[in-house]
């Protein structure tokens, strides 16, 4: 009985230890950045508010991030969204390698209408001094449109 419990526990741990987040993502992008190189994500609301004046063009929000220091397996990352600056320390450990940024307020159904960005540190190459960061956007109701700069795509 004890062996069966151990095998079951090991099976559950292996299922939970996936490297890629286990969600269907509307947008996926891989950034390979040098120190102080700025990555940009332009966020535009896809639904037009009925009370809004149609002659005013819809201005996209800019989310930008960059890293400034890599020390002791930690990457100091700066994020700026809607002119609000944030600083994070990403580490090459599971659950400490990611940043969650809400992009829009939740809708009526909080679970279905969440829109957020997940930045995940994939690695740092000490020889080339490049950091690899994956960006995932969850938006099941298609409330936003996203454009990434620089344009290199996520490749598995």
Main sheet: strand order: 5-4-3-2-9
The sequence of SSEs as H and E is: HEEEEEEEEE
Shape: globular
Helix content: under 10%
Q: Overall pLDDT, averaged? A: 82
Coarse structural class: mainly beta
Using the CA coordinates, give the radius of gyration.
19 Å
**Strand count:** 9
Supply the number of helical segments.
Answer: 1
> What share of the residues does DSSP label as strand, in percent?
over 45%
Low-confidence stretches: 48-52
**Tell me about the biggest sheet?**
5 strands, antiparallel
Distance between the termini: 40 Å
Give a topology summary.
Blueprint: H1 2-16, E1 27-33, E2 39-45, E3 61-71, E4 74-81, E5 84-91, E6 98-104, E7 115-125, E8 130-139, E9 144-149
Antiparallel strand pairs: 1-8, 2-3, 2-9, 3-4, 4-5, 6-7, 7-8
Question: How would you characterize this protein structure?
Answer:
The protein is mostly beta strands and 156 residues long. Helix content is 10%, strand content 48%. It contains 1 helix and 9 strands. The chain has one helix at residues 2-16, and strands at 27-33, 39-45, 61-71, 74-81, 84-91, 98-104, 115-125, 130-139, 144-149. The chain has a 5-stranded antiparallel beta sheet with strand order 5-4-3-2-9, with no helix packed on it. It has a 4-stranded antiparallel beta sheet with strand order 1-8-7-6, with no helix packed on it. The radius of gyration is 19 Å and the shape is globular. The N and C termini lie far apart (40 Å).
């Amino acid at each position: 009985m004890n062996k069966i419990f151990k095998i079951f526990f090991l099976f559950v741990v292996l299922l939970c230890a996936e490297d890629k987040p286990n969600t269907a993502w509307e947008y996926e992008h891989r950034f390979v950045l040098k120190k102080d190189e700025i990555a940009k994500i332009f966020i535009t609301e896809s639904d037009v508010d009925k009370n809004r004046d149609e002659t005013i063009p819809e201005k996209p929000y800019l989310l930008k991030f960059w890293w400034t220091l890599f020390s002791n397996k930690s990457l100091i990352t700066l994020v700026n969204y809607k002119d609000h600056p944030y600083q994070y320390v990403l580490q090459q450990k599971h659950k400490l390698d990611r940043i969650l940024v809400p992009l829009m307020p939740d809708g009526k159904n909080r679970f279905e209408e969440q829109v957020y960005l997940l930045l995940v540190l994939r690695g740092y190459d000490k020889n080339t001094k490049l950091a690899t960061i994956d960006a995932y956007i969850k938006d099941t109701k298609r409330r936003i449109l996203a454009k990434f700069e620089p344009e290199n795509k996520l490749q598995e």
